[in-house]
């Protein structure tokens, strides 16, 4: 078995895969431990049944031990040695360009990147340390959201700031959601029956966190997120790109220090900031159709910013590319968001098939009509499966 772990500062999402068939690992169980250090709640799905436990989780180690004990109780595993490897989602891996066995050097890089991803990397570090203690025999693999974007060229990754900021402080665009982009690129290669290294795509990963990536010849060519996941398009609670002077200006206006303003840009902006009510796209689209001006304002801005980046990336691909893909919570499910974004792309000769946009689907579906010059698809991402496959490849 392979355990895939996506840990935050107070939560651990986990998925267990059976890797008997190493080419096609099958997911056996998935769940989440939440509210770690606050009080604690664990839930998971196994064989169609939902299990829920309210209990004290003072730290990640207790949470992981609890989950493993439950797996043994339910006979999912006989003992912890049935799990031969653990794959971790790591948001920031600085310049590491591929998934890697977690040795001392990799662990140090993940630790150094805490200052670049203070909201994300600390949880992963605590989880790695906990697994090392509880399962000393398991091999551990780190899969980075940044790795896929290491193919960006200087013109894309440099910021027009003093060059020494890049050389001495690592100030550059790193890009994120790379595990999802890697999965989507492989899936699109299957769907279009086209070799991965010839694929040119614009992939819109629209979840709570959101980014768009321009994929040229199967590699990341440009992406919207930057030094941190705060940059790029507007998101659920993150602002995306803004005039950098707003930070100093609002710091003085509100008499708050820069880190507090940055916190507002991370947690109280985006859809939540502009609507003043919700960061959840289901609320936003419901309100939009009811004529609520707060939701209309938020959705119009959100879809315009996304469309602006799609045009920019189409320009990089020369307007002759294999398709636009929508993925993640909003991209996969929000019919209205997809439609509003596509309606704002008059230069691209896209013909949407409204019925297809609305119909339910399995792994993927076309949204564009047969005659559309540019194909548009919704594809369900599967970051856990990608992590599992990389973990198998590095440990078998
Ligand atoms: P993620 O971070 O990928 O889990 O995506 C979370 C976002 O997806 C939230 O804004 C949700 O409102 C949105 N989402 C999930 N399901 C739907 C749905 N059926 N329709 C519209 N938005 C959805």
From TrEMBL:
E.C. no: 2.7.2.1
Catalyzed chemical reaction(s): acetate + ATP = acetyl phosphate + ADP
Protein name, UniProt field: Acetate kinase
Cofactor: Mg(2+); Mn(2+)
Pathway recorded for this protein: Metabolic intermediate biosynthesis; acetyl-CoA biosynthesis; acetyl-CoA from acetate: step 1/2
Organism whose genome encodes this protein: Spiroplasma monobiae MQ-1
Residues of the site described as Transition state stabilizer: 177, 238
Keyword annotations of the record: ATP-binding, Cytoplasm, Kinase, Magnesium, Metal-binding, Nucleotide-binding, Transferase
InterPro entries in alphabetical order: Ac/propionate_kinase, Aliphatic_acid_kin_short-chain, Aliphatic_acid_kinase_CS, ATPase_NBD
Family named by the database record: Belongs to the acetokinase family.
Catalytic residue list: 145
GO molecular function: acetate kinase activity; ATP binding; magnesium ion binding
Free-text remark on how the cofactor is bound: Mg(2+). Can also accept Mn(2+).
GO biological process: acetate metabolic process; acetyl-CoA biosynthetic process
Function: Catalyzes the formation of acetyl phosphate from acetate and ATP. Can also catalyze the reverse reaction.
EC top class named in words: transferase
Acetylation found in the keyword field: no
């Amino acid at each position: 078995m392979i355990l895939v772990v996506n840990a935050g500062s107070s939560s651990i999402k986990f998925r267990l895969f059976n890797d008997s068939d190493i080419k096609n690992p099958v997911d056996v169980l998935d769940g989440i431990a939440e509210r770690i250090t606050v009080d604690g709640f664990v839930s998971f799905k196994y064989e169609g049944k939902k299990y829920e436990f309210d209990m004290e989780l003072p730290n990640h180690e207790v949470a992981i031990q609890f989950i493993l004990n439950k797996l043994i109780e339910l006979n999912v595993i006989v003992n912890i040695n049935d799990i031969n490897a653990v794959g971790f989602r790591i948001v920031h891996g600085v310049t590491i360009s591929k998934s890697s066995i977690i040795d001392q050097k990799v662990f140090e890089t993940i630790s150094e990147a805490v200052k670049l991803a203070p909201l994300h990397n600390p949880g992963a570090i605590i989880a790695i340390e906990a697994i090392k203690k509880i399962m000393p025999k398991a091999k551990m693999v780190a899969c980075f959201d940044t790795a896929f974007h290491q193919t960006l060229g200087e013109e894309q990754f440099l910021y027009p700031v003093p060059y020494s900021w890049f050389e001495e402080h690592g100030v550059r665009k790193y890009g994120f959601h790379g595990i999802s982009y890697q999965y989507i690129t492989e899936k699109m290669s299957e769907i279009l029956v086209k070799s991965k290294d010839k694929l040119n795509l614009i992939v819109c990963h629209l979840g709570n966190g959101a980014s768009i990536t321009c994929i040229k010849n199967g590699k990341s060519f440009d992406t919207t997120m930057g030094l941190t996941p705060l940059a790029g398009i507007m998101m659920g609670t993150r602002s995306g790109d803004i005039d950098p002077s707003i930070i100093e200006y609002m710091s003085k206006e509100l008499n708050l220090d820069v880190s507090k303003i940055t916190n507002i840009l991370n947690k109280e902006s985006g859809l939540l900031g502009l609507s003043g009510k919700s960061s959840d796209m289901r609320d936003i689209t419901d309100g939009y159709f009811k004529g609520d001006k707060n939701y209309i304002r938020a959705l119009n801005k959100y879809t315009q910013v996304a469309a602006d980046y799609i045009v920019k990336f189409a320009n990089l691909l020369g307007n002759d590319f294999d398709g636009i893909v929508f993925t993640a919570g909003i991209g996969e499910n929000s019919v209205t968001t997809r439609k509003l974004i596509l309606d704002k792309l008059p230069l691209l000769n896209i013909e949407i098939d409204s019925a297809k946009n609305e119909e339910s689907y399995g792994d993927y579906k076309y949204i564009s009509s047969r005659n559309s010059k540019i194909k548009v698809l919704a594809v369900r991402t599967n970051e856990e499966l990608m992590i599992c496959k990389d973990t198998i490849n590095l440990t078998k």
